Fold this sequence. Notes:
By secondary structure, this protein is an alpha/beta fold. The chain has helices at about 1-5, 50-55, 70-75, 110, 115-120, 125-130, 180; strands spanning about 10-15, 25-30, 55-60, 65, 85, 95-100, 135-140, 145, 165.
Amino acid sequence: MVKANLTIEHQFICLTDKPNLHKIEGITFKAAPISIADSWCKLSLFTPQLAKAYGGTAFYLDLDVVITGKLDGLIKNAKLDKLNIIKDWWREGNNSSIMIWNMEKFWHLYTSFKPSCMKELKGDQDLINLKMEPSEIRNFGEVEIQSYKANKLESDFNKHTKIVVFHGKPKPHEVDGWVKDYWK
């Protein structure tokens, strides 16, 4: 989906705990720089090691998203002095399913993580919401990125929407209709 919708030169890197498990042309599989359980592993995106290895702009996507439009504008319009992130549809704060940022910034999201956070908070999104100042956040537009459930997209989606997020149930592979045309 990314390849079909992004013309900006890019590298596709999948951070995983099993880097030798998959071989897919055009995707580099790398061991995640840290090993943290569940959604907490997303904090490894903010390590200085990744910034030194790759640098530049990072564009992160959860696996349970469907790309429905061209992504170049989303990236070109990102404010790289901020963490570009989704405003959560269901609760106060942000949803980390999609993020764009300068890899030289926001290392404090990784360094502030302690194992005790896993008992005190629900996941990476809670830590991001706790540790980021409002001035460091830029939310994507409400049409650019939508929620399959919250925006009730069972039958169709806005033609200006670039990405549809499938948080919770159902997942894209469990849905018929328009999703089948985009989920590849």
